[in-house]
Amino acid sequence: ISLQMMKHAWDNYKRYAWGLNELKPISKQGHSSNLFGNIQGATIVDALDTLYIMEMKEEFKEAKEWVEKNLDFNVNAEISVFEVNIRFVGGLLSAYYLSGEEVFRKKAVELGEKLLPAFNTPTGIPWALLNIKSGIGRNWPWASGGSSILAEFGTLHLEFVHLSHLSGNPVFAEKVMNIRKVLNRLDKPEGLYPNYLNPSSGQWGQHHVSIGGLGDSFYEYLLKAWLMSDKTDEDGKKMYYDAVQAIETHLIRKSSGGLMYIAEWKGGLLEHKMGHLTCFAGGMFALGADGAPSDKTGHHIELGAEIARTCHESYDRTRMKLGPEAFRFDGGVEAIATRQNEKYYILRPEVIETYMYMWRLTHDPKYREWGWEAVEALEKHCRVDGGYSGIRDVYNNRESHDDVQQSFFLSETLKYLYLLFSEDDLLPFEHWVFNTEAHPLPVLHKDDGNKEENQS
Ligand code: DMJ
């Protein structure tokens, strides 16, 4: 089914928005998000590896031809360093490793070079936004005290290590290793990492801590950096397990109805809210179980299972059986959105992602059942004539569509569904780690002397 879903999403993108970043499936035209400046073709680059894995050969070929002829980084554009890295660099790297086609390697390295001026700050903590023509960077105007964002500068590591590996140029890996160093020098409140860090002073901004938006994939990349290094990156490993310890002590709570959740922390006070984005953590805890001290392995799997259950409840307690953007555990509710502006679902992958990890790591059939429920809900409420659309209120009887087919629906949501219903030997975890946009990157095995050997 996910293959047919991919075909519907892709065909409509192709028909109505070819070469543009995303599709508006209701108005049947292109959608441009300022996250990518005027770099074009986000959906194409994000979808390449999914097309490849699903063996949609014709579609992969036309996508590759578009990349060859049209993907152009010589544009005057202010882009989000994080978004361009996870979707474009990540998408190109995976396409290269899966297909071996040189064009993807070349474009990935070319784009990586364009991102380097973002690191020209006093500390080397990169800017959030960068003009890739002028090389001038800045931060989001809304970020506390001119800070860079943890989940943004902390989600470059995997891609940049691969850029050095594939280009022979150590500069990419040096930049992300320096981020680690800066973080390790800083005092952390209660062992937690605030979401805001000022790239000039090297000091934390507001003490907000989140495993959802603004924090999330920083933690994911610590664990995956260690896994991708064939378990040699001891620093990444230590930072990950120390962080999980602090998260358990200070953020993880159980509701009176028995649901485990991960709260947000604001200067020592808890906000009993969990984002859809936070639901990825179930999969992360389970993936990290193996590397935890042996008496804790079962415990980390259990954390993953509990978070998966809570996130499933957040879906099950809506009318449409699709989860809201954020749900709360206060004011007498559990796993339910209470504010109107938190009731939307924009085709996000995190819950299905966690089902996929839990399925692979436990083979408990309930994860496939829950995945199937999500498929049915997507088909019923999000599928429209012109593709797939997000929903404004998942508690309503009638769909109000937001008219955006997010590129991560093709790169992540549909890929994770496909993997959930595939055998474990498709992209096995011993050999691949998924970047935060679900782009698979190979584990760099200790005996990989050079890139030729790695390919073979
Ligand atoms: C994606 O771009 C990535 O999964 C990112 O880590 C978080 N946001 C979206 C999906 O929700």
Question: Describe it for me?
Answer:
There is one protein chain. Helices cover 46% and strands 11% of the residues. The protein is built from 16 helices and 18 strands. It has helices at 2-17, 42-53, 57-70, 81-99, 102-115, 150-153, 157-167, 171-185, 216-228, 234-250, 280-287, 297-316, 350-362, 366-382, 407-420, 451-455; strands at residues 22-24, 29-31, 78-80, 129-131, 137-138, 148-149, 196-197, 208-209, 252-254, 260-262, 264-266, 269-271, 273-275, 326-328, 383-384, 387-388, 432-434, 440-442. A three-stranded antiparallel β-sheet has the order 3-4-5. β17 and β18 form a beta hairpin. α1 (2-17) packs antiparallel against α15 (407-420), α2 packs antiparallel against α3 (57-70) and α11 packs parallel to α13. The chain starts with a helix and ends with a helix. It binds 1-deoxymannojirimycin. 1-deoxymannojirimycin binds at residues 86, 217, 277, 348-349, 408, 412, 436-437. Ca(2+) binds at residue 436. GO terms for molecular function: calcium ion binding; mannosyl-oligosaccharide 1,2-alpha-mannosidase activity. Involved in the maturation of Asn-linked oligosaccharides. Progressively trim alpha-1,2-linked mannose residues from Man(9)GlcNAc(2) to produce Man(5)GlcNAc(2). Pathway: Protein modification; protein glycosylation.
